[in-house]
Amino acid sequence: MTTAKHFLDLDVVDPAELRKILDAALARKQKRSGLPKGALDADSPLKDQVLAMLFEKPSTRTRVSFDVGMRQLGGGTIVLNSGDMQLGRGETIADTARVLSRYVDIVMLRANSHEALSALADASDIPIINGLTDKSHPCQIMADIMTFEEHKGSIKDRAVAWLGDGNNVATSWIHAAVQFDFELRLACPFKLRPSASLVSWAQDKGARVTVTEDARLAADGVDCIVTDTWVSMGDTNEIERRRLLSPYQVNAALMSAASADAVFMHCLPAHRGEEVTDDVLDGPNSVVLDEAENRLHAQKAILLWCLGH
Ligand code: CP
Ligand code: NVA
Q: In angstroms, rounded to a whole number, what is the distance separating the alpha carbons of residues 126 and 128?
């Protein structure tokens, strides 16, 4: 076990630290407003540092936002696909961590299994960032909280409804409800609800996290409706998932149950006509592109936090 400052999950970082990260993200975003995307932040705080991004699964937003973000901070990046590495031929994740620790300053991993992320972090001398696993997606939800607050003010004591699969993104929303102190109502089919132990953990911490099978009940009067794909990377039972999840589609009727100025969020990629209809995704309440942009700003602040800035 090393003392490197990893960013592995929202439940294991102190809430005051999470707030500091979001404040730093917003300040840095505002400071470079209007600059071309390739322009360096004036202070170039990560000059001479290198980020390796290691992917076991596809990515558009995570890949590009980390890459551009690290460059804006003055650092360099390397993209590694696990299939092109000795990792893909059986080298252990721990040995990979020890070797990468000698070449680069920080690693972001998108992993099939959360165990691989833990193994990488345990063996690494340098900070590791969770860029999505089967269990969670903490960087996404940092960007989501930032986006909510830009549009609606502080998320504390506000109400968010999660519609659909109790998946990795939902898990990070549950962690966030505890850490940022807002109400989270999850509407999920019984077979795809988040684990009972996770929900009890949140409730034991005093969080207002509830699970129902009734989509309309969850959406009633909320400040934000959020959903995600019905078939995540690595899921196999596509047909059954579509059948179970079809009552949870976010459409105009469902949005009308929320407060009139509720925001609609989705981490993307969206499957138009499945979990969300075009009119909602492209409609006036949708903030999905701000969410995507804020991946960049939130992750720059996460990189800086991990590297002691
Ligand atoms: N939201 C998100 O993580 O997108 P990518 O899979 O494209 O990185
Ligand atoms: N739940 C989705 C999120 C993609 C960003 C997945 O894991 O595929």
A: 7
Rounded to whole angstroms, what are the CA distances from 35 to 27, 28, 71, 287? 14, 12, 14, 22
- pTM, rounded to two decimals: 0.98
Instruction: Give the residue numbers spanning the domain of 38.
Output: 10-137+292-306
Average pLDDT of span 283-305: 98
Which residue out of 72, 140, 249, 299 is catalytically annotated? 140
Task: Work out the pLDDT band at 1, boundaries 50, 70, 90.
Answer: low
Q: Is residue 91 part of a domain?
A: yes
Q: Can the peptide bond before residue 269 be classed as cis, meaning omega within 30 degrees of 0? A: yes
Residue whose CB lies within 8 A of the most ligand 2 atoms, among 65, 232, 266, for a mutation test: 232
In a domain, 63, yes or no: yes
Total residues found in the chain within this entry: 309
Atom of ligand 1 nearest to the CA of 63: 8
Average pLDDT over residues 264-278: 98
Convert the pLDDT of each residue in 93-137 to its tens digit. 999 999 999 999 999 999 999 999 999 999 999 999 999 999 999
In a domain, 4, yes or no: no
CATH number, domain of 133, equals 3.40.50.1370
Statement to judge: residues 118 and 215 lie in one domain: no
Same domain? For 131 and 157 the reply is no
